[in-house]
């Protein structure tokens, strides 16, 4: 939005560019040399305290209920019996 001199507001539409790769629908397969390179890499492990990150859950469990009991099944011998 932009404020115009007379006090009214006008919505400005901006041209946004979007580009994608034409090969998005093709799966990427790992090559054997890259698999071996990945296996030889060392994985670094950090504790959250060292990274100054607090781990907490933003979710609150309000209520937990069991699902409703289903009605017992009845085997019918014909369609007429099912409709009746």
Automatic annotation (TrEMBL):
Keywords: Electron transport, Transport
Domain of life: Eukaryota
Keyword hit for Transport: yes
Keyword Electron transport: yes
Highest classification ranks of the organism: Eukaryota, Viridiplantae, Streptophyta, Embryophyta, Tracheophyta
InterPro entries: ETF_b, Rossmann-like_a/b/a_fold
This protein's name: Uncharacterized protein
PANTHER family: ELECTRON TRANSFER FLAVOPROTEIN BETA-SUBUNIT, ELECTRON TRANSFER FLAVOPROTEIN SUBUNIT BETA
